[in-house]
Structures are given as C-alpha cells and as structure tokens.
C-alpha cells in the first residue's frame, strides 16, 4: 500500500470514529478500529487509536464543558480507577475471551430489546455516590477487558431515562479519565514509536473535523433520536465483541 493510500485510510478511519464519538460520546475505537486494524499492525494501531480517542474526548469535554457534571462524574472515575488495574491483572493471568463475548451479548440483547420495545419504562432516579462508584468500578473493569469503558455507565444512564445533556455530562469525563489512565499504563510499559506519533499528527485535522461535526449533530438531534443512536451504537459495539 502506498503512503498516500495509507494516510487517506488513516484520515478516513479517524474522521469516522471521531464523528461517532462526537455524536454519541463513545465508540471511537469500535469504528476507527474496523479500518485501522487492517492497515496497521496491532502494536501501532492500538496506541494510535487510544491517543486519537483521548484527543476526541478532550474536544468533547471542551465543547460540552457547560453541561459537564464534575461532582457526580468524580464518583464514577474513582470507581473506574480501581477497576482498571484489576482488569489488567486478569488480562495477563486469565482467559477473558468468554467474559468479553458474554458481556457483548448482554449489551447487544439489552440494546436490541430496548430499541424495539413498544413502551419505555425507566427506573426511578437514585442519587447515590456509592452507586456511582460501583457503576464506575464496573465500567473500569469491563473497559479494561473489552476497551468499552463507557458501555456500562451509558446503559445505566439509559435505564434511568437521563436526558442527552445530562448523560453526556456524566459519562464523558469518566470515559476520558479511563482512556488517559489506560494510555498511561501502556506508556509505562512501552514507548510510543515515532511512526505512531507521526500518524497521530497526520490524523489531527480529520480528528478535529469529525469531532466538531459529531458534536454539531449531537446538538441538533432531539432526545428520542439521540437515544436511538446510543442504542444502535451499543448494539453494534456489543455484536463486535461477540463476532
């Protein structure tokens, strides 16, 4: 593959992943990885996707800063920071393939059922820091095993019928913190190669453009449309783990 073709596919993958992440708040790696993992070696693609995903989350946090719920999200983050090291240990000492498939199946079944059920029934809102810490712990643990840290908190928010602004304001800082922590763990074990840094620099225009377009779409869609988008992304992300 020529350098031009490689750079074009890189920009296209990053733009698509950034657009979806700007719109839904998550799923950058699920979308971009579908292309990047066929173009680059995993040792290059994975840290590149993580670096790009952190960049997308930074743009998201800045654009949505007025709706970010830092206090509530802090409880999620504390729980997640405890869950990730446990996930890293399990990855190195146990076979986690069955868990990933099982979790993906549960997420896909929940999203599919919720997407097509005729009536919506939400749980009563429960303001509890302990609950948020527990959900964050599960999100960090699952995220470390499946690269989907936002799946569990997003499902939890959907089950409680949160508005799109509150959901993004609660989950967005959590996802950003988990990705930064995970990237720091990788950097503590391996240095980023110059090629990864070069590819990241090349992808920046596509990253910013895709994220900006996704955020614009997020602000334009109504609550029901946003919810359907979230459920579709959860369905596809869950199926990607199963397949």
Automatic annotation (TrEMBL):
InterPro entries: TM_pro_TauE-like (IPR002781), TSUP (IPR052017). Signal peptide: none annotated. GO terms for cellular component: plasma membrane. It comes from the Bacteria. Pfam families: TauE. Keywords: Cell membrane, Membrane, Transmembrane, Transmembrane helix, Transport. It is found in: Cell membrane. It is a multi-pass membrane protein. The chain crosses the membrane at residues 12-39, 45-62, 74-92, 98-120, 132-150, 170-187, 196-218, 224-242. Belongs to the 4-toluene sulfonate uptake permease (TSUP) (TC 2.A.102) family. This is Probable membrane transporter protein. The lineage of its organism: Bacteria, Pseudomonadati, Pseudomonadota, Alphaproteobacteria, Hyphomicrobiales.
